[in-house]
Fold each of these.
Amino acid sequence: MSVWPWLAAAIALTFLLVTVIYYRRLCRLVRAVTLFSPRRIVDNFRNMHRIYPTTVTRRAPQAFQFERGHISLPPHFDFRGQQLKTRQFIEDTRTTGFLVLHADRIVREEYRLGQTAATTCISWSVAKSIVSGLFGIAMAEGFIHSIEDRVTDYVPELKNSGYDGVRIKDVLQMSSGVAFNEDYKDFHSDISRLGRVLAVGGSLDRFAASLKREHPPGSRHHYVSVDTHVLAMILTRTTGRSITDYLEEKIWQKIGTEADAYWITDDLGVELALGGFNATLRDYARIGRLFLRWGNWNGEQIIPAQWIRDSITPDAAHLMPGENNLSDNVMGYGYQWWIPEHPQGDYVAIGIYNQFIYIHPDKQLVIAKTSANHHYSQDTVTSEHQSVALFQAIANSL
């Protein structure tokens, strides 16, 4: 009897098994490639758990309820001498949710493009500011001795990488000196390579260990998203907890969140701490309220107040707001928080495609904005500065 029919059957069976095993990964790759396409971006941003593996941060047993009020938004706002129409800007940046919290009352809440109060939406780099809060808690609990310590004191697998010998403080301030191209339009950029690690099932830790040094640490402010992943590596090594669990216990269940949140992970279950967090708009506002109140939630000091003060205080020349040849951005920078170009005591968490948590302590103001702005890649900076100008206009109108 000929062996060819058996061989053909074996090959067909092998092909079928490989297809079944890798089908989900192939689907993930296809979705990842079209993640920011104009036709799919809105749906993708609120359904990241259908694209990537995730872990769940469980909501609080009882939700904290905000009081209600109402304000009208200023019809126009000034941006570098140009008057922009507020409503047109909200529409043009493809806003999916917009919430204004003033003096502990929700005074404006609106949803667009099919989003509702129950919809979770990806934070992108807003997650970095949340990780900063967790880091402050871990410092207070004694898991990390000092931000003057070297990264490799806690994560030895980063020896011989760009992070070898770098101070934790320099990583907190996006001044690690590590070479990193964060151009989302460039297929070959480091951030695009990182996206493909998630899409095809690689390791985020190994990716961090592959990066090299470009500048002396602490000399330039150069935005490196993987710096936040390194902070998360320190957190998980020192606390013995995942980012998911640590956030749930230390913050999420203490601030009266009303919905489960979730983190995108790699295939090893390691969270994309630099931008993979997903939550509802109101729960983003609750995070804002926690920072607005200097880490205190209804009498319980959750994040040390001094840590928040330090987090929003640029303390070196390369971190100062305004035109700065030592920085890639006219905004200032603290511990994973941005300081506006023209600060008013305010500060802001920013994620790509126009995600924000804006905080103005003097005005008792928090603004949370989620968006799916497919025009973002055409100018990755202007819409962010315009958004901050709008937030400041709202603050000044109160």
Amino acid sequence: MTFSAVIVAAGASLRAGPGVPKPWRNLGGRPVLDWSARALSGAGARRLVVVTTADRIDAARALLSDLPDLSVVEGGATRSLSVRAGLAALDGPPDEPVLVHDAARPFLSGEVIGRVLEALATADGALAALPVADSLRCGEDHVTGSVDREGLWRAQTPQAFRRHALVRAFDAWSGPEPTDEAAVMAATGARIALVRGDPRLFKLTWPEDFEMAESLARPAREVRMGQGIDAHRWGPGDGVWLCGVRIPHDAALVGHSDADAGLHALTDALLGAIGEGDIGQHFPPSDLRWKGEPSATFLAHAGALVGARGGRILSLDLTLVCERPKVSPHREAMRMSVATILGIDVSRVSIKATTTEGMGYTGRQEGLLAQAVAAVELPSA
């Protein structure tokens, strides 16, 4: 269904505490106004009118310059005057649906927009609303009575009407400042439908509302796990690289790079957690560029891929399986090395060592085994 929309963003925001007006405060890294405007435009608004204060007109145009069919106009001293200014800026068929929405309700969904528009097929107007769930009490500093909540609703926006009918209703209004457009239409005898709103569509009013809104604005996150296993055989040498730390030893691990099995296992664990294959795909042993390459390069690459996906490393747990060298004297240096390579706190890195008590290839000191598990937090798919 074709529709136009008016966003009211001209209020003084007196109850919201010090700072810029509500539509211009940051929420999830962008102004509150941006949330509603893009929701309505994305739902298919033919025309979008933003009503704001004179000093914010240029800022609103710049913020929403990429939205099609946008108009920004100056509002009035009251909400009703601002809505009327927005309606005057609209064109098109007089019976076209128009949605009026508060900029201070940023979490507007396409589902709510669809429900209020659909209700216009059988009603003169429609508003999103929620039934009152809390018990209601009367009084100032003590309870003097109660109010039956049956049949009571919390009105939200958007509210939908045919444009010419809403304009006529405002022209006929002679009462005090109306609470909303539904009140203006109801005064003409219009039938206003109640449709299911959304608890997230609350109005930013008090300073504490912004803290709650910020938590909703954060993208949903999920934790993913990855596992990495690497093994290298022992060969001639006088030292071994483990987790970026060189440990003097009477042998060396043999490999195409520096054969740091600990960093290789951690790299594979991170790649596995984000579904990016394994270390061999990113750094093929057949490529001479990586011959003798410090394995810190590989781990830093995996960490950068996590960051590029908007993720963060929660924890790394590495176990080294070998008879020698002793790991415990170097454990803290190894943890710090891994933390530095990845730019994370050392508390997120665990490094352990164990032996197989002489059993298997590690017990016979033919090679060293590294096993790693990574926990990564990513935006939900």
Amino acid sequence: AGKVIKSGITSGYSAIDAHLYHAGWGRKELSCIMGPAKSGKSLSLGDFCKNATLAGYNVLYVSLEVAHEIIAGLIDAALSDTMIKDLHKNPADVRDEILRASDPSRGAGIFKMQTRASGTMKPSHLRAMIEKYRADGINFDLIAVDYADIMAAEHRSDDLRENLRTIYIDLRALAHEYNVAMLT
């Protein structure tokens, strides 16, 4: 019909989505957030995942660096419009806001978070994780790995560049195989 249907998974920011080919993170693609240490990459990944979940997408966030309590705290603070340092002051109010925001009847998707030790998770471990959720009836639209550079290669080599190359190729293959947007 001469129209291209944009099928991206939203970042939650129209200004970002407008610059992405699919008007969001593309399915079957691997997108990389790059920046120097302590520039907010993990914070951004968590925020993009939260936004996609609120938009109705099912999301898996796998952290290999930041403890899940920290990422969960950041997301809880954003969902409840509470400063991180104040999350403990009114935990019942924070919980109620999170439950309200994440209510499937309001269109929210499923958000799952996993943490693994740096350098121990291989792409095959991620595949097993995805399959376990699929067996439970959960299919993801977006998978975030924080971050691919500290994954383990399936077949370790003495060449760091080769290890990284194979990790990124394997993540892209998983994105394609499971029809998900992969973010790292």
Amino acid sequence: LSEFYDFAFFQTKGNIKDGLQVAINQLAQKALPEKWHYGSDQEDNGTHPILRNYLVQTFQRLRSEDIENETNPKWESKVRVSNDGKEAVFNTGLVDIIYEPIYAYFERNSRRNAQPWMFKAFVGSRDPFMQSLTRSFGANLPAPAHYYNDTCELVYDIKSSIGSTKWDHILNRCDRLPIEFLEDNVTNFDFSKPKTPEFYRQLAKCIIDNPRSFNRIKNRIEDAIDYAIKRVRWNFKTAIPIYYPGQQKISLLLPLSLLKEGKIDIALVLEATETGAYIAHTILSLQMAYVNARLITRPDSDWLTAETIAAKADLLDDVDD
């Protein structure tokens, strides 16, 4: 989030004191209609948290692509500055109701000791600002963020298997596991204490150091993985592709039911390798899973939907490695 705020200043409006939120609200109105909040419509507080995460992470991806290719003379920058240095633009990756790209448009910020750019508008195909973009950038406007080179990366290979699982990595993120599941499978730990970060650090150490608890959790997760793979073989759409910022590559998500069959509790992140085998890299909460999946496209899934994910705090600072 700080990288986006360092790039541009967003003006506040009325009683909305968060300038970026003002811009997000504008984008939600302009983009092809989509559910940008978790849970039911009654739980919507109008902040569009999914869209906010999407826009910030998309910008970060565009900037990283530009940095990776800065020595390539043929590279056309994704976050592009006009020849006179007065305007900037990037492709949001979203489209309007006639499926034309929407661009984020900025002008040079004249204030001292401030961000170099000031947000001006999100521009669709039928906006008057499109003529301004044409005058400043021509017909070749920036391309959207790029995440994969081969569509095969987006599909689980049923001929492959999971070669290894990073158990310590997964268990050190036990705060993402249902607390009822942990209580059922961990012995010699006081679950009555407040659920603080220190609580989960101690719990993770208890699990890793206690072979009985470790094996009980490991066996239950392995059972859930086996069941998820059966689902993938029945319906390939069960495995959902995501852009995983921690690895800066495409990974796949598998749904894991730990407490009750049919109710998905967490998502397992699979990393493909050159040998064809997968590495079970980490687990994500369903909210984190949806945010990362949405960077590529709106998930077409029977288990990862915005409606079935409980509304929680914004995830921009929740980064996995």
